[in-house]
Design goal:
Chain lengths: 861, 327
């Protein structure tokens, strides 16, 4: 389906205007044109003022809000960490009650993971990526804004629960049956609130992947891309495959909590181990999802410090991809003490050790780069050095706990607490700090204080080691994790007291850092334009700041254009390159091909709006109301969210340009279409990538079905009913016919047979509704009671998942029909049809697999 | 080797100075735990050397020799340090560590022990031979020295984890699924075990003593444990027994040889002979019994047993005398 031309790119124009020759680039630009272009761009990209500032969708604003919110949640979770340490400072302490302590450690972990580490990566990437790629903005600015608003609503809801004493208290891993049986709404807050945020995370991941693949500057072939881009690609991909199993798990979990469907209840055929598998299939890649972006920051800081290109670019890329793949094969090392067969323990021990190799390659590549360069130790490099010292210690204890026999002692003790904090501080917090100091002049055009920065570093570094070094021994001396108190007889007292003192030293470092970060800098002079003498494109941005990002989008021929391409900044400033102006006062960025970055479209991106905030508020309602079992308002809110999203898509995406504006002269004589559909368009890639994540979630449900099959002898129970064969077969057939109709509509519409296309577009939703009804009846009409046993429960779950997807598909088909009737979809402009058809390819696959799984499998096996 | 590692590690010295060792994996008293402790010291020495090498190299190239070195050397470093060296090192390490596993998983013989994790205490059953009537106890495990004892693990409702650091690694306990572990203590003594899987409100207060005895003493003890409860020896204790039955303690607790046959709570037939009370949260004396009965929820938040605040001091001391006398 992905045409070769989309990946490699045929020349958009046969007049030999692309690629630009040196002669074309050397030609001087008319000064009046430069001035006019700058004014147009300034007008087009200006940030709304006053209370309308909240409607901004530009990456520089949304990214800033995102990063500051994640930082705020980190500080909240840090305070919880301090309270935990206070409680444990002395034995037998009664500063916190057991239940409060359990809420605090649950929220400390959950917030650090879901409200800080992952969102912070997305925030920093949203801020940086357009700069690194010389793009004007992300491909879907409103999606970033929507993701941010979802994040802040969900985050405040989840974090706020702690103030009311109703926060989740079963640990961030939420193991059933403890978490399924937990009283109160804590578990529901965790499941629904964080699922909501996971959806936002996936949205950001889709945005970032499409940004890296399709919004690079012309000429930046994929092997010239800054390493940060590669890491975004790998991490985005990992989010896409790691979060869906958790979402599927959450779905089953919430069905059990709300409706008593026994997925994890061993008395009715369920198995708590299924959650452990699904959770850690998410949970282990999560560790690398947190770790790799920080390595990506190091990959930007290190070459600059060395003033040399990175050594071993290809090795690093391969290692990053390799780490991503391997990370999905390690999850069982979180379950070494669950009594699995020795064979699996051996296999997963070996796989866990194997991940040392790609990690080692990356670290040694950085050291090698520093070897070949002349290193100047700057503040960011100091943090990188601290990161290395801490991370290697955490990595080496990782080698230890990855050995199953050693883990039998270390598992669930303070040794693991020490290990994970060493990896996360060394592999995330310290590189992130390096990144903040390094990129601060890029984000704000001001600098952070170097003197304060050094104090911050030493407070954090010393405090960290004082806190966590002793924990290795506390753990091996027998102290389990997650205990709210301990008796004084075991010799843990002094160690715990030292850890508590250290925690306050770290906290002092963060407070000092926060003060320096947030203090007003009105009078401070602006930073130099490229203060670190770096080689990558983001440092070409203007000082003082302009909202347009790149003044003109350059033609790239090297990995470090600012070092290796003469005159590039000067030419960008003059508007010598692409998109130097905005005659229609429309926000634009270039879309290029995936591998070779040949320009193929001038994408009109969306601007400020309230609709994303509204959509996020209603989406929030759909997730948050069910926490309190308020289902009618939840359904209304969900409907309103869908309406908002339809309005947003209808009014702002795939707009058909006026007749004479189909092509846009983007500069250097290159004319590019404004409208694109199918694989040429970013929307199609967005759908494709989203649906990969969706399919992963569905695969996790099917995995659950077969997990029960292999793990439980009474699955399916003897003499049980099955889904009704007749209705199920007819339902599947109708849904396949619906898929064929929408597919046919796309094909005939392209050929200009609009009437036939409309007929098919009417048939498609009718067939889909019919098919969904039959599918539903095949289960609901069979007498299978989902509360009686896990077999009917999982069949119901698969059925619900399927018809929710076909239901969404019906809305989309109707959207296309309306598009055709009201002139938004024409034979030449059929991007909506392509995207909906792509969605239906996945739905069709889901329907067939679901039908075979619940209809055929139990009958033949 | 262990001694040497300690001498070179001031942190470890400091730490172990105040260590009583009854719950320490670094102070092993069982065959499996010894092997694992040795594994740890080997790993620690290796990790220290590697840490110094990597960070030393970083320090060297950034601070001592910031001039350019050859690119060729740098690329060799990536291949050698990133691929070749770790490949051989990790292969060796895996071979060493995984070769430990079969021995650690060897089954035990003789008296089998079944331990069930409850909220938040341990149901302990000794099965002298297959098919024999189990001898029920709670919150304390007695083991013969120099003998490999098989322990079958389960849980009532929630997941727990069975762990005696000084004797062996841990194993999780699940509702509806049996897991197993074997321990082989080598030193007579009292060791502490604790639940290692978070199991709710009073997770921190779910511990037990593992008492390792000479083999013949163990056999004698087990024979005594099999007997019904002793008759109360004093008037006070006899009153206590009456109060015990009046207050309905027998609805949850069993005292074999009396009408108390409740299955929900810990078996109290020989509770007075145990070293601790309330899953190793209190000592086992008369005062502690009184304290526990009156303040259950304060001592162990979330516990199902209600606090008997209405009992007069006299009644309470009679009850405590009775319970303490259940040797």
């Amino acid at each position: 389906m992905i045409m070769a031309s989309t990946l490699t790119g045929a020349a958009p124009d046969s007049n030999n205007v692309y690629p630009p020759t040196e002669e074309m680039l050397a030609k001087p630009v008319d000064e009046a044109a430069t001035r006019r272009g700058a004014e147009e761009l300034r007008e087009t990209w200006k940030t709304p003022k006053g209370f309308r500032y909240l409607t901004a969708v530009n990456n520089s604003e949304v990214g800033k809000w995102y990063a500051l919110s994640a930082f705020f949640f980190m500080m909240c979770a840090g305070v919880l960490g301090l309270l935990i340490r206070l409680q444990l400072a002395v034995p037998g302490n009664d500063f916190l009650s057991a239940d409060r302590f359990n809420q605090f450690f649950t929220m400390h972990g959950s917030a650090m993971m879901f409200l800080f580490a992952v969102p912070m990566f997305e925030a920093i990437s949203i801020l940086l990526l357009p700069g690194l790629l010389g793009a004007r903005d992300m491909p879907f600015p409103r999606l970033s804004a929507y993701g941010f608003w979802c994040f802040i609503i969900g985050g405040v809801f989840v974090m706020g629960s702690i103030l009311f004493g109703v926060a989740p208290n079963s640990g961030w891993f939420m193991y059933p049956p403890l978490a399924t049986e937990a009283e109160g709404i804590g578990s529901d807050i965790w499941l629904l609130g964080l699922s909501f945020i996971e959806v936002a995370s996936i949205a950001a991941a889709v945005e970032l992947i499409v940004g890296v693949l399709k919004c690079r500057p012309p000429g930046m072939r994929i092997n010239l891309m800054p390493l940060y881009g590669w890491y975004v690609l790998v991490v985005g991909g990992m989010i896409l495959f790691a979060f869906p199993p958790l979402i599927a798990g959450d779905f089953l979990f919430e069905l059990q909590r709300s409706f008593d469907w026994p997925f994890f209840d061993p008395e009715r055929g369920g198995d708590p181990m299924l959650w452990q598998h699904l959770f850690w299939i998410f949970g282990h890649p999560e560790v690398y999802i947190i770790f790799l972006p920080s390595i990506a920051i190091a990959a930007m800081v290190v070459p600059t410090a060395a003033q040399r290109p990175i050594v071993g670019y290809s090795w690093i890329v391969l290692s990053a991809v390799g780490t991503g793949f391997l990370s999905f094969g390690l999850w069982v090392h979180h379950m070494f003490t669950t009594g699995l067969p020795s064979m699996s323990l051996g296999f997963f021990s070996a796989a866990s050790e194997a991940v040392v190799i790609p990690t080692g390659i990356q670290l040694f590549a950085f050291v090698a780069t520093l070897m070949v360069g002349r290193v100047k130790m700057s503040l960011p490099m100091l943090f990188i050095a601290g990161a290395l010292a801490i991370f290697t210690a955490g990595g080496l204890t990782g080698v230890m706990v990855a050995l199953a026999p050693f883990d039998w002692q270390a598992h669930d003790t303070y040794f693991v607490v020490a290990h994970l904090h060493y990896t996360l501080f060394g592999g995330m917090v310290f590189p992130l700090m390096a990144g903040v100091y390094y990129f601060y002049p890029f984000f704000t055009k001001k600098t952070l204080s170097v003197r304060t920065g050094r104090i911050v570093f030493w407070l954090m570094f010393v405090g960290f080691n004082v806190t966590f070094m002793p924990m290795h021994f506390t753990g091996l001396m027998g102290m389990p994790r997650r205990v709210y108190t301990y008796p004084s007889v075991m010799g843990w007292d002094l160690l715990n007291l030292i850890s508590t003192i250290g925690a306050f030293i770290v906290a002092a470092g963060f407070v000092l850092f926060a003060i320096d970060l947030l203090r007003p800098r009105g009078k401070q002079p602006l930073a130099a334009r490229n203060p670190w003498k770096a080689g990558t494109l983001e440092w070409s941005h203007n000082v003082p700041e302009e909202n347009w990002g790149s003044r003109s989008v350059p033609y790239i021929t090297s990995r470090y254009p600012l070092w290796e391409q003469e005159n590039i900044v000067e030419r960008m400033d003059k508007g010598r390159y692409y998109l130097p102006d905005a005659p229609d006062l429309k926000r634009e960025t270039l879309v290029t091909t995936v591998l070779d970055a040949r320009p193929i479209q001038c994408l009109r991106v969306t601007g400020p709006t309230w609709i994303t905030i509204l959509a996020a508020v209603f989406t929030g309602g759909a997730f948050i109301f069910p926490t309190f079992h308020w289902y009618p308002p939840a359904i209304v809110s969900g409907g309103a969210a869908i309406a908002c999203i339809i309005y947003w898509l209808w009014t702002a995406t795939s707009q058909i340009p006026a007749k004479d504006k189909e092509m846009r002269d983007v500069g250097l004589s290159l004319k590019l279409p404004v409208y694109a559909s199918g694989p040429d368009s970013v929307g199609w890639w967005g759908v494709w990538i989203t649906m990969l994540g969706d399919a992963t979630a569905f695969a996790s449900l099917v995995f659950g079905y077969f997990f029960y099959w292999t793990a439980k002898p009474d699955f399916p129970p003897a003499g049980t009913e099955h889904a009704l064969a007749g209705p199920l077969t007819l339902g599947v057939a109708a849904l396949i016919a619906s898929w064929a109709s929408i597919y046919g509509a796309r094909v005939v519409n392209r050929k200009g047979k609009v009437a036939t296309a409309r007929t098919l577009l009417i048939a498609a939703p009718v067939l889909a509704i019919l098919g969904s009804g039959l599918f539903y009846f095949s289960v609901a009409g069979s007498g299978l009671d989902p509360t009686s046993h896990v077999y009917p429960a999982i069949i119901w779950a698969v059925m619900i998942w399927t018809i929710v997807h076909t239901g969404g598909g019906v809305i989309m088909q109707c959207y296309c029909l309306a598009g055709s009737l009201f002139g938004k979809v024409t034979p030449e402009h059929d991007s909506d049809l392509w995207n909906v058809t792509l969605y239906w390819h996945f739905v069709c696959l889901t329907v067939v697999v679901a039908g075979l799984t619940i209809g055929l499998m139990p009958r033949v096996m | 080797m262990r001694g040497r590692a300690l001498r070179f590690s001031p942190v470890a010295l400091l730490l172990l100075a105040g260590c009583t060792g009854t719950q320490s994996a670094l102070d092993p008293a069982g065959k499996d735990a010894s092997v694992l402790a040795d594994l740890f010291w080997v790993l620690l020495i290796g990790a220290t050397v590697l840490w110094l090498a990597v960070n030393g190299l970083f320090f060297y190239v950034t601070r001592i020799e910031p001039r350019s070195l050859s690119r060729r050397l740098a690329e060799t470093l990536v291949i050698g340090g990133g691929i070749v060296f770790p490949f051989f090192l990790l292969s060796g390490l895996l071979a060493y560590a995984l070769s430990i596993m079969p021995d650690q998983r060897l089954e035990g013989t003789g008296v089998q022990i079944r331990v069930t994790g409850e909220q938040w205490w341990w149901r302990v059953e000794y099965i002298p031979e297959p098919g024999a009537e189990p001898i029920v106890a709670a919150n304390e495990i007695r083991l013969p020295v120099d003998h490999r004892t098989e322990i079958k693990l389960g849980a009532d409702k929630f997941i727990h984890s069975f762990w005696i650091p000084a004797l062996a690694g841990k194993m999780d306990m699940f509702p509806g699924r049996e897991t197993r572990l074997a321990v082989e203590p080598t030193k007579v003594g009292v060791y502490r075990g604790q639940c290692a899987e978070f199991c709710g409100e009073a997770h921190a207060l779910m511990a037990f003593q593992a008492v390792v005895m000479e083999q013949d003493e163990f056999a004698a003890w087990l024979e005594k444990e099999r007997q019904d409860a002793v008759m109360p020896a004093s008037d006070l204790a006899r009153q206590g027994e009456a109060i015990f039955l009046e207050e309905g303690c027998g609805a949850c607790h069993t005292v074999r040889g009396t009408e108390a046959r409740g299955p929900a709570g810990p078996d109290l037939t020989h509770v007075g002979s145990r070293l601790s009370l309330g899953a190793a949260v209190l000592p086992s004396d008369r005062e502690a019994f009184a304290d526990w009965v009156r303040h259950t929820k304060r001592i162990k938040p979330g516990v199902k047993m209600p606090p008997y605040v209405h009992l007069s001091d006299e009644k309470l001391s009679a009850l405590s005398a009775y319970l303490e006398g259940l040797k």
